[in-house]
Amino acid sequence: MRLLSVAILFFSLGEVRGQDCTPNERVYADSQTSSSDVSVLFVTLAEVINKPNAVDGSLYTHSTLSTYVGLLGLGTAWQNLKFPAAELPAGDNGSVPVSVKLATGSTILNVLNNVTIQATLSGVPVGTAYSGASLLGLLSGQGENIITFTPGAKYDGVRVIINPLLDVGTSVDLYYAYFNKPSATIACVSPIEVLSGSTGTIASSLTAVENPLRSIDGNLGLYAKINSTVSALNETYLTAVYPAHSVVGDSIRIIIESDNLALLNATILASDFHVRGFSGNTQVMDVAGNSPFLNLNLLHGSTTKYTITIPITNAFDKVQIATAGGLASLLNGLRVYEIQRIIAKPKISSTDLVSNLITLCSGNTSTLTIGTAQDCTTYNWYNTAIGGTILHTGVSYTPDVSLLTPGDHIFYVESVRNNCTETSGRIPVNIKINSLPSITLGTDPSICVETLTALLPFTATTENPTSYSITWAGGSPLTNIVDAAFPASSPISIPIHVSTPASTYAGTITVKNANGCISDPVNFNVIINPKLTSPSITITSN
Fold this sequence. Notes:
By secondary structure, this protein is mainly beta. The protein is 4% helix and 44% strand. The chain is elongated and about 175 Å long.
């Protein structure tokens, strides 16, 4: 019998409140002890087989604990899984949750009445024992189960016990036990496990989800298939488990296809399709198939595969796809190629930015800022698309003016998730630097008082000036000139008021071109000479 997948997560998990930036790494139990086989008159009543498989670090192998049709309820099977001594939580008194993955080949309601799970210390059970109703929670149905609980006492391992019932046999597969520890650096957006199952009964010829691991294997040629439940009131689901919480602003991307290759749309998905996010055991997001937050588009290059994109508005560490019986029946099953979390690409803002281009004049710079900075994220700036040296780390970056020579420049920024190996990839912003115009002046003009114009000669210009401005030194009676049209040829005519007294007047001239770039100021003088004094002539006669 193919085993189904369910997640039971209803004990205290130290759930996230607000954004948690620390990813977790599983510490698996790596040694075991177990009960001996129990036999009466050469009839085996209880046994544990493939014992090492529960501590080999694999997600896919398991030991099996079994009790068979008992005589007066005789025969108990148990297995202790012990954690590496060097990895045990320092100073912990049982507050770090423990998780155990089990699988049952019969109805969980019957099996868990016979199962007890409890932490151990040196092989001795400690803390709270969980069995029967405390394990059932809200779920029913056969299959795999991740059972997470808080021991409540100092521990170094966990025990699973199968107790017999008269005339009832029980079999449980034990895959592994683990606790979480903070991780320095880990692949945060890659699922570490996938769970699948059904809240109801599946048709006898089907499993709830076929090949569930294919939904997280990164291969777009392979898929998991969600089948329908017998009852439309129940759901079949597929849940990807991550080592770290998502960050608000990221997105979920799911690639799906109808098994009968029918075209999909929001009307078909409607309320029978859900994407849910969970933080620990708390549901923090539920987006239905007809939600405006769910974007459904054909996958590029395909006529039958679709991408579903959903913005992340609450942090979670599990993504679940759930379908009610009616939808999977309509589609003859739903293919799920990939469940992905996508790190948001940074969006650059600047007061000078137009269509991803910043145009500046030589010597000027612009501050580049991340429009909406995310939690748990570092921003690195580069001037190369690949490799190179980090120029700056931070939400804002002002490029060094000395780097901005005339011409085209490209700067890049990437989002780096803290304590994670993934990045968003580098996003470019283009900066075009225009050269400044210039002007070379000739001899300073020299005129007499009451002359109405001074002619300022120039011998050369660069970058095609279109206007000029003149500013006079403080206290000058001459009038400043702002953005006057630049003459087609030398000289520049400077108006002089008739009453301007004789003196030397210091001014600076700048020229501007069509790009709006303004030259460096050039100093010059206008010399106004006084009138000559009329000679005094005396005429005498002989």
